[in-house]
Amino acid sequence: MSPTTLIIILLVLSTFGYYVGRRRALVVGCDSAGVKNLHSRPIYYGSLTALCCGIPAMLLFGFWLTFESTIMTNLVVSELPEALQNLPTAELNLQVNKIRNLVDGNIVAGVVEAEIQAAADHYRNLQATSNAALAVAAISVAILGLMIVRAKITPLLRARNRVEQIIRYMLIACSTIAIFTTIGIVLSVLFESIRFFNAVPIAEFLFGLEWSPQMAIRADQVGSSGAFGAVPVFVGTLLISAIAMCVAVPIGLMSAIYLSEYANKTFRAVAKPLIEILAGIPTVVYGFFAALTVAPFIRDSGDLLGLGVSSESALAAGAVMGIMIIPFVSSLSDDFINAVPQALRDGAYSLGATQSETIKNVILPAALPGIVGGVLLAVSRAIGETMIVVMAAGLAANLTLNPLETVTTVTVQIVTLLVGDQEFDSPKTLAAFALGLLLFVVTLLLNIIALKVVRKYREQYE
Amino acid sequence: MNNAHPNGISPARKKERTLDIVNRGLGKRYRAERRFRCYGLLAIVVSMVFLSLLFISIVGKGYSAFLQTFVKLDVFLDPEILDEQSLATADYQGLVKKSLRGMFPDVAGRRDKRMLYRMVSSGASFQLRDLVLTQPDVIGQTLPVWVPADDDVDMLIKGHFDRNVDEGQRRLKDKQLAWIDQLSSEDRIKKKFNTTFFTAGDSREPELAGIWGAVAGSFFTLVVTLVLSFPIGVAAAVYLEEFAPKNRWTDLIEVNINNLAAVPSIVFGLLGLAVFLNFFGLPRSAPIVGGLVLALMTLPVVIIASRSALKAVPPSIREAALGVGASQMQMVAHHVLPLALPGMLTGAIIGMARALGETAPLLMIGMVAFIVDIPTGFTDPATALPVQIYLWADSPERAFVERTSAAIMVLLVFLITMNAAAVILRKRFEKRW
């Protein structure tokens, strides 16, 4: 029985349970004076039955599917002949993949050995058994739940309270998913990073000046030094982010000032959404724009001026990233400028200050902490931005601060190292997770600082 | 007031009055004022210019992809080649080649012939096969068939290739140019609406490549995302806003949500790779994994939007419900949720729009493969629309540039529609209490 069919059956059973529960409540509640004897309304008895019928079965179903594949693979591997079991992990994984492919009915490259075929058949048998067992178990749990609740229904059963309690637990479970996501991110990145740092010392990673993550397959291979010094990658990231900030902060801040202080209502109503459109455009579109329009333009104008500009210059990627971040800076600054009390403005005007003097000397200093917080958030976004740099920045890790040269970033390296086929025991692949850990930690710190600054500032005028 | 201008009360000591000093500086100050104002306006103009440049460059590059050059061939559907038994596997390529040779009888030599055959797309033979399979009675006739031209011919007709370059640097040689001129003088070359682009999956041949596979992949991914993130997000928001006690635990959840909203999307891709693919062993390149990852990514957006929608419902409604004896759960389910729902939906649509444009996490979980087939379910290998754009942007053929831009236009249309729906929803149901 396929999982989808099973889910449908469970849902049907739950619906059935609802009617059974309601009916039962009406029957036990109706003695002489109508349904007035019941503690809760009949729908609550129905819902309670449905929940007790569906939830345990669904939980069982979820756990089963989660662990089924791992357990079955281990079972199959333990049945393999000794010679195959003693293979190195990488090759064993290859064989396991082959078995899985055979089971799924995909085309398998090369000749299929007899033992692999046997293992695949074994796997298929196990799968059939497991599916059947799951179906029987889930359906019996559902029916059992239904029967138990049905038997328990009496006019005194506090069905509403029970149902509300269950829903409350479900709500709590949903709200903890954010925590589990964070834990999941930290653990998944941390584990692989620890494995990476076993192979490459952490000091070399953080302070090494050379990055070339190609691992040698043969000892005498050319150009595969396998150096994992991440400094050039950080410098590249910071360079591109700095260029982006040079574009985004002045433009974003000035447009926020104009929109909140000078513009009339109509202009604001038109211009603000237009600027926000910039934030809604997918980053892959910016990447395409940077790679095909901006980068060639910068290269050609550099040639005119007699400068040798790389066709994947940091300037192109940074400038386009800056355009992307403009609305971010502008809408945050807008909020903070609007939060400055009108009394401060009026005070400045009454002293004879012009509008621009008021803005420069009163409003901006007052809004500064908030704006700094917003800029920090924008920096964290620039550091984590992926598609623009993947498409418009280079792969070569040059240690340079020249914006006309090619640099690479953390995100570009993660994408290059992890797209395509990977082995999970090579430092090359694990390096991506170490970079990911770094990225996560840096953006997290920036966000925490920014949120602290912003919150502190917000309280000031409330 | 007097304290503010100590000089003002003793004019004798100073020959100049303060007013004069102020007046003298006024011109400069007004100029500075105007300058500052101009900078502000300039900033807005610059962002508008960027925005329009972006759109102009995309539309300018992409509009021509909606048309495709077709070549008219007179194909003799030879009954000898088209055997009744093996109609599906007959040599249609041979038929195409034969009719090309028939149109240009002078072409001799293997190299020239091969150049001639390269003028029409390799999809021509599939088109013939479909024609024969649907209408078997055409066998034996000579039919005029419009088949797609090769992408190089297409680019030339659309004017993206310069004829005046040195022959060695051109994709099309002089002979091919002459043939193309002959074909167009015979009215055998025409640009028609490019239906392939909207109905086909990916292909290595630009003239056969379409976005439908990617659109379907995006659709399945978004369905998973919506089904997971909307109910969970609303439930989490309801708990945090209506039930949660103020304690450390809730604070922790809130801090987590705020931080997750700012975690770079690629980190979610790493999570998907390590947890869903390597730990749980879910299939690579599948919309279900993409949907899971994007759901985790949009969850904070949905939660934050839903919470502000719940906050906007006035407490008097809650108190009234509690006052007539509703339980807290009934109050939320019967009164607060229905009122907050439009706001929550708006947030969900905006979250979905963000998820639709997201590329980086999908690259991590292998939705970046070259997939020709159109996905039909949640576990089929698939790409998504933005990933398709990324893949095409990497392709060297000139014809993929216009297709990439056209795919971007389609993506932007989807995004604009979703955002417009969100705005309309908000306008329609927004209530000021």
In brief:
Chain A has 462 residues and is mostly helical. Helix content of chain A is 77%, strand content 1%.
Can you give a write-up of this model?
The complex is a heterodimer of chains A (462) and B (433). Chain A has helices spanning 3-29, 42-79, 82-85, 89-104, 114-152, 159-175, 177-199, 202-207, 231-262, 265-280, 283-304, 314-339, 342-350, 355-384, 387-392, 410-418, 427-460, and strands at 211-212, 227-228. By secondary structure, chain A is mostly helical. Chain A has two domains: 3-175, no CATH class; 227-460, MetI-like fold (Orthogonal Bundle). The longest helix of chain B has 45 residues, at 18-62. Chain B has helices spanning 18-62, 92-103, 110-117, 123-134, 151-157, 174-185, 195-199, 212-243, 248-262, 265-279, 287-311, 315-323, 328-357, 360-364, 385-394, 398-429, and strands at 67-76, 142-148, 189-193. In chain B, strands 2-1-3 form a three-stranded antiparallel β-sheet. The mean pLDDT of chain B is 87. Chain B is extended, with a radius of gyration of 32 Å. Chain B has three domains: 6-63; 66-201, no CATH class; 212-429, MetI-like fold (Orthogonal Bundle), CATH 1.10.3720. In chain B, helix 1 crosses helix 16 and helix 8 (212-243) crosses helix 15. The relative contact order of chain B is 0.10. The chains are: A mainly alpha (462), B mainly alpha (433). Chains A and B meet through helix 2, helix 6, helix 7, helix 9 and helix 10 of A and helix 1, helix 8, helix 9, helix 10 and helix 11 of B.
Secondary-structure map:
The complex is a heterodimer of chains A (462) and B (433).
Chain A: H1 3-29, H2 42-79, H3 82-85, H4 89-104, H5 114-152, H6 159-175, H7 177-199, H8 202-207, E1 211-212, E2 227-228, H9 231-262, H10 265-280, H11 283-304, H12 314-339, H13 342-350, H14 355-384, H15 387-392, H16 410-418, H17 427-460
Antiparallel strand pairs in A: 1-2
Chain B: H1 18-62, E1 67-76, H2 92-103, H3 110-117, H4 123-134, E2 142-148, H5 151-157, H6 174-185, E3 189-193, H7 195-199, H8 212-243, H9 248-262, H10 265-279, H11 287-311, H12 315-323, H13 328-357, H14 360-364, H15 385-394, H16 398-429
Antiparallel strand pairs in B: 1-2, 1-3
Helix pairs in contact in B: 1-16, 2-4, 8-11, 8-13, 8-15, 9-11, 10-11, 11-13, 12-13, 13-16, 15-16
